[in-house]
Amino acid sequence: MGIQSLQNSLKGLIGFLEQSDRIVNLILSRPDVQQFIIKMNTDDQLFKDGINNLGVTLESIGGSYTSFTVSEKTRKGQPTDRITLKDTGDFYSSFRIELGSDFFEITANTIKDGTDLRSRWGDEILGLTDENLQRLIDKLRNEIEIVVRKEIQKRFAA
Question: What percent of the chain is modeled with pLDDT above 90?
Fold first, then answer.
């Protein structure tokens, strides 16, 4: 590879790296990455911990389950020691990731039996805690590194 070819490859790589928003959005658009984000919100925060994206317990915001709900959740083998917002699973399965040019948003159908879950439990039921945001950043960092390594190999292959 001659000097001019090496310089052209380097300029191309720099141009590629300057498209960092596009690289991140490509990674965020992958189904496995979106599922990772959704599972942190639903499985980790809501189901396992019973917390919103601020780390506050849902019970401290909207109160505890009714005795009827506790008996139904017990019958279904679901936890009753925390608010999980998981009954039929419809709410959890409605979670989606919407991408903007430099952001993403977690959305879901929060309407249950004609009532918006956010009216009782708050808007913060959607979104990641600081800890889970850091987990996502770490994952994105690793994924970006893989993309950049592949791009370097492609541009500088002998």
Answer: 71
